[in-house]
């Protein structure tokens, strides 16, 4: 009771805080900023309104500071006045791209210690690399591209240890590229500058387009730095001459000319020597013409192979740009996200997991939105069928189902976009770095996950008439870090793959026995997979790992054998042994799980029934434990299905 009163009070308090307060210092800083810079009249910030309601401004949840400022393309002209934006010390995201900003950044930008994303591209900044940025150690994305920044790229960029993307292309940076060692960087671009010298080893992992358009750059992905020539032949660069407005100095220094002359002379001598050598060789062995030819032969092969790899490398980016038919990202729910394919392709991506259906990426879009993009492979259905299936999946709405937000279909590429769940998957929670100081998943949370996942699947079956087809712990995602409500993802995709190419290892360990033959998941095979998932929750063992002692034995069979030997206690996860008074519940859940994994499909309960059994079980237990929210239901234990006394001697009853 006290607890409830307190939480209501806390709610009220929070609410009142929300209504009254606004960050006044941040407001003043923003007003000073906007009053000193000319801008389009799309920005009409109302001084008497809360700063948190202004266009382009986002505050934190409690409205105590401005966390995001986005003013792209609003016609800001001139240099950023000091002591304005630099006063927004809690700022996380700042986007001033596509304006007419000039000069440098004021030194007080170094106060933006929490800044994670900074987008200043497409302006007219003309200073050296702003030193104030070098102490912003939380920066994840830094975009200074398409400005007129000059001078060297400072070595202290290494201070920004969290960077995943740094964009410096289309500027006037010069000198050598410093050895940037930040391993987290996935997007790196310095193309179209005046950089020179060899590409440092630490950056050689990026491809040529990251460096193109710098006439004097060599090594790494570009042609090797040749001792005869001070710079590599500029032939690989022209394709990228995107900005004809920027003059590239075509004048060669006398040193370069001498170098080229020397080089040419050396090459000539070398060729001559080669010819003589070949002639002599040919004379010597006229019988085997094999030898001399390969010179031409081996050349042709790698060239062809290279072309092959580069076209197969033509992944998301390539097909987006190349194909004549320009397909669009189709959104399934209106208004939630506003990005297009280009944005998606520009996003920084990180592999979340490789499954048999395809690979999932976490994509962080420029403006800070995070989504999950799944690239499907081996899709056999036509575009029309694909669209129909996506549209019906897009309509599914349940708290326990991860919504599908958008899709993309082209000849070479099929993408699905869904919400990103930062709290991760059940699989990671159960099996990730066991023992090394991680908090074990406690029983209450396991129950909560079981209940919510069951509800999600039941919703798919009953309301949407969709077979999930890929139930496994890595497809059960958690909504929040500590309070574990789960949602199921990756559902309803099996119709896209056709029967013959249905990879039968897709849900190894979770797959119902009959699916091995029919290759077609059904409602009942979903129930089986869910039963395996419950066993996984109870035993802490991954069903698709060889952690069960004997080879070739699956989790249900292992549990059955252990339970039959009357060692029921042995099946449970050791991490659960520290909690008291949960044996009864564990045994009850075990019984439900065993019913789900019945070999004969018709003996398995339907999903709504599974939900009911789990919920009933919860209810009868809340009164015993007293730890969960109190239930006013006096009819405890009267369900008859599992009389409380029985639970002390569980083994027999647990065998189905
Ligand atoms: C920014 O902060 C400085 C130092 O705290 C203060 O002197 C200045 O007035 C602030 N600027 C604005 C516009 O509030
Ligand atoms: C500014 O906001 C106040 C309070 O919200 C409102 O009364 C007023 O009409 C607004 N002024 C303009 C010009 O929108
Ligand atoms: C880089 O970081 C170090 C320590 O974090 C700091 O002392 C140094 O001033 C930074 N360098 C620059 C150029 O800001
Ligand atoms: C780029 O910088 C060089 C000096 O490093 C300067 O001579 C040149 O004019 C600059 N070009 C542009 C387009 O700003
Ligand atoms: C780098 O930027 C240039 C110019 O905008 C672009 O053509 C190139 O594709 C980019 N490189 C990478 C690896 O994205």
Automatic annotation (TrEMBL):
<dbReference type="GO" id="GO:0004672">
    <property type="term" value="F:protein kinase activity"/>
</dbReference>
<feature type="compositionally biased region" description="Basic and acidic residues">
    <location>
        <begin position="616"/>
        <end position="636"/>
    </location>
</feature>
<feature type="region of interest" description="Disordered">
    <location>
        <begin position="287"/>
        <end position="322"/>
    </location>
</feature>
<keyword id="KW-0472">Membrane</keyword>
<protein>
    <recommendedName>
        <fullName>Protein kinase domain-containing protein</fullName>
    </recommendedName>
</protein>
<keyword id="KW-0812">Transmembrane</keyword>
<feature type="region of interest" description="Disordered">
    <location>
        <begin position="616"/>
        <end position="656"/>
    </location>
</feature>
<keyword id="KW-0732">Signal</keyword>
<dbReference type="Pfam" id="PF13855">
    <property type="entry name" value="LRR_8"/>
</dbReference>
<dbReference type="InterPro" id="IPR011009">
    <property type="entry name" value="Kinase-like_dom_sf"/>
</dbReference>
<keyword id="KW-0677">Repeat</keyword>
<keyword id="KW-0547">Nucleotide-binding</keyword>
<dbReference type="InterPro" id="IPR001611">
    <property type="entry name" value="Leu-rich_rpt"/>
</dbReference>
<keyword id="KW-1133">Transmembrane helix</keyword>
<dbReference type="Pfam" id="PF00069">
    <property type="entry name" value="Pkinase"/>
</dbReference>
<dbReference type="GO" id="GO:0005524">
    <property type="term" value="F:ATP binding"/>
</dbReference>
<dbReference type="InterPro" id="IPR013210">
    <property type="entry name" value="LRR_N_plant-typ"/>
</dbReference>
<dbReference type="InterPro" id="IPR000719">
    <property type="entry name" value="Prot_kinase_dom"/>
</dbReference>
<feature type="compositionally biased region" description="Pro residues">
    <location>
        <begin position="229"/>
        <end position="241"/>
    </location>
</feature>
<dbReference type="InterPro" id="IPR032675">
    <property type="entry name" value="LRR_dom_sf"/>
</dbReference>
<keyword id="KW-0067">ATP-binding</keyword>
<feature type="transmembrane region" description="Helical">
    <location>
        <begin position="256"/>
        <end position="280"/>
    </location>
</feature>
<dbReference type="GO" id="GO:0016020">
    <property type="term" value="C:membrane"/>
</dbReference>
<dbReference type="Pfam" id="PF00560">
    <property type="entry name" value="LRR_1"/>
</dbReference>
<feature type="compositionally biased region" description="Polar residues">
    <location>
        <begin position="638"/>
        <end position="656"/>
    </location>
</feature>
<dbReference type="InterPro" id="IPR050994">
    <property type="entry name" value="At_inactive_RLKs"/>
</dbReference>
<feature type="region of interest" description="Disordered">
    <location>
        <begin position="229"/>
        <end position="248"/>
    </location>
</feature>
<feature type="signal peptide">
    <location>
        <begin position="1"/>
        <end position="21"/>
    </location>
</feature>
<keyword id="KW-0433">Leucine-rich repeat</keyword>
<dbReference type="Pfam" id="PF08263">
    <property type="entry name" value="LRRNT_2"/>
</dbReference>
<feature type="domain" description="Protein kinase">
    <location>
        <begin position="346"/>
        <end position="617"/>
    </location>
</feature>
<keyword id="KW-0597">Phosphoprotein</keyword>
